[in-house]
């Protein structure tokens, strides 16, 4: 087994992974004892699909699955998040470049790939059951911390019903390659190119999902004017989409995603003692509040959230 003592541990993410930098090899060691199938095997399989489709993604340099690690390319430390946080940089120009990468991802037709164990991996469908279970994380982790037990029980029943109704209103079929965590912290700036990381959760789903994840990103506060401008640019580059149907799906998926995120951030704090994400919850609520006013389909959900979380839904 490699000695990780000599390697520099680098900042991780919300997953069960650890990352070490090997300066000699210009590589990153990814260690994952928990969920290693997803974090090592599937991660490399998805990267292979991205690379095959001429998208810059980490290439596998070596693996020791038994010892819970893989070695991949090092794309450095500069994320698009850091670039966009710099006030001097033109945010819209940068977002346009990101949209071009997203367009390339959405053209991917590959659904099967051999992983480094020489087994065939098939990218699964991002169906309504998965979307429902993800949104339910809001009920499972956030609601019990905020509402009383009796209020929680009543809220959960009504909430689940509303989520199922919203999912039934989605227009687009699950035929698009979806990164599923497509935001600026998962995009690296390397050798004047944008590299895509953290793609192990990729599924075949709704065309609007990754755009919602990018524009309504809880980690990066952007003005609504810029959000609209980026949305319009995406639409301009995808003229085959039906704007009305697409916008509806975009808004539904944005609201559901940010409800899920609130649940995940509370889970990270309670279960994993990672409390730093709690400070992002108010902005997730802001994003929900902004989108929930956009269409009548949200009326019941808006009322339900307004009654139970009046501090956030106005």
Mean pLDDT: 95
Just give the CATH class. Alpha Beta
Structural class: alpha+beta
Report the radius of gyration as a whole number of Å: 20 Å
Uncertain runs with pLDDT below 50, 5 residues or more? Answer: none
Which superfamily, in CATH terms, is the homologous superfamily? Aminoglycoside phosphotransferase (APH), C-terminal lobe
**The biggest beta sheet, please?**
5 strands, antiparallel
Count of DSSP H/I helices = 11
Question: How many independent structural domains?
Answer: 1
Question: Which outline best applies?
Answer: globular
Helix content: 40-55%
Compressed to H and E, one letter per element, the order equals EEEHEEHHEEHHHEEEEHHHHH
What is the fold named in CATH at topology level?
A: Aminoglycoside 3'-phosphotransferase, Chain: A, domain 2
Strand content: 5-15%
How far from one another are the termini? 56 Å
Number of strands: 11
The assigned CATH architecture is: Alpha-Beta Complex
Strand order of the largest sheet: 1-2-3-5-4
Lay out the secondary structure.
Layout lengths: L7 E3 L7 E5 L4 E5 L4 H17 L7 E5 L4 E5 L6 H6 L5 H16 L5 E3 L5 E3 L5 H8 L1 H10 L2 H20 L7 E3 L8 E4 L2 E4 L6 E3 L3 H7 L8 H14 L5 H28 L10 H11 L7 H10 L6
Antiparallel strand pairs: 1-2, 2-3, 3-5, 4-5, 6-7, 8-11, 9-10
Helix pairs in contact: 3-8, 4-6, 5-9, 6-11, 7-9, 9-10
Structure write-up:
Helices cover 47% and strands 14% of the residues. The chain has 314 residues and is α+β, with helices and mostly antiparallel strands. The chain has one domain: Aminoglycoside phosphotransferase (APH), C-terminal lobe (Aminoglycoside 3'-phosphotransferase, Chain: A, domain 2). The N and C termini lie far apart (56 Å). 35% of the residues are buried. The mean pLDDT is 95.
